[in-house]
Automatic annotation (TrEMBL):
Gene3D superfamilies: SGNH hydrolase (3.40.50.1110). The lineage of its organism: Bacteria, Pseudomonadati, Bacteroidota, Sphingobacteriia, Sphingobacteriales. It comes from the Bacteria. Residues 1-21 form the signal peptide. Residues 32-238 form the SGNH hydrolase-type esterase domain. The keyword Signal applies. GO terms for molecular function: phosphatidylcholine lysophospholipase activity. Keywords: Signal. PANTHER family: SGNH HYDROLASE-TYPE ESTERASE DOMAIN-CONTAINING PROTEIN, THIOESTERASE 1/PROTEASE 1/LYSOPHOSPHOLIPASE L1. This is Lipolytic protein G-D-S-L family.
Length: 254
């Protein structure tokens, strides 16, 4: 008689596992905030957000929508609510998604490349302290409007130390962008105490990965200091999407 109980327990396990599997077919809406790297420089349908959406659908099912709010040349300053440049557009995109209360809203943010410039982009150069303060203002404003949302901060990418197009980056900028990384870490640590389960560290691997493999995954571009490497090519955008989707999936579990 005791043996006959085994199929019953197995059935319970199967039901539990099935429920877990099918819960993966969830609704997730992602708003991407960033600069030209987020916007994409290859083709409209070949950007990191588009590729990230494909990868998320493979894991979560078809109910994943993305909105690409990346703008070439933009900094954290341009996304501050007070500047009224991009924040209203971000909110418009998020409002469309937030209307569906059954979907999880996620903001995937990668800013810092243009903040780190010596001159050119709005507000540059942005100090590490102001960079963190700007990210906090953006995050606080988003969470005030969308309290159930999750925010993922991805670390800004590596670029070559001779990068100089319409804006000047060079070695000074490269070092500055590195100084932003601990600022993200510290900010997320603050949110773990003040607003847990809503703000997360995203991708941290891409800086070193692209530094090591820039000839394969970044596009050669002509600048005043010679050929520089800043923007991912199609393969690089797919690599970035893999890292971003992994970070988003991790945030969804917490």
């Amino acid at each position: 008689m005791k043996f006959n109980k085994l199929p019953y327990y197995l059935l319970l396990v199967f039901i539990a596992c099935s429920a877990f599997i099918y819960n993966d077919n969830q609704k997730v809406n992602v708003v991407f905030i960033g600069d030209s790297i987020t916007h994409g420089t290859v083709a409209k349908d070949q950007s990191p957000p588009v590729f990230t959406g494909h990868l998320l659908r493979e894991k979560l099912g078809p109910n994943v929508q993305v909105s690409n709010q990346g703008v070439s040349g933009f900094t954290t300053v341009d996304f501050l609510p007070a500047t009224k440049k991009m924040f209203p557009k971000v909110k418009a995109a998020a409002n469309n998604f937030y209307a569906d209360s059954t979907a999880q809203l996620v903001f995937s943010i990668m800013l810092g490349t243009n903040d780190s410039a010596i001159k050119g982009p709005n507000g540059s150069p942005v100090s590490p302290e102001n960079y963190q303060a700007n990210l906090k203002t953006i995050a606080d404003s988003l969470l005030a409007a969308y309290p159930k949302a999750k925010i993922v901060f991805n670390y800004p990418l590596w670029y070559s130390d001779n990068t100089h197009n319409r804006s000047s980056y060079l070695k000074e900028g490269q070092q500055r962008v590195l100084s932003y990384h601990p600022q993200i870490h510290a900010l997320v640590k603050q949110y773990k105490k003040s607003n847990p389960h809503h703000v997360f560290e995203g991708d941290r691997k891409s800086f070193k990965y692209f530094e090591k493999n820039y000839l394969t995954y970044l596009k050669p571009e002509n600048g005043t200091q010679g050929t520089f490497y800043l923007h991912p090519n199609t393969q690089g955008e797919q690599v970035l999407a893999k890292l971003w989707s992994t970070a988003i999936l991790k945030a969804l579990k917490n």
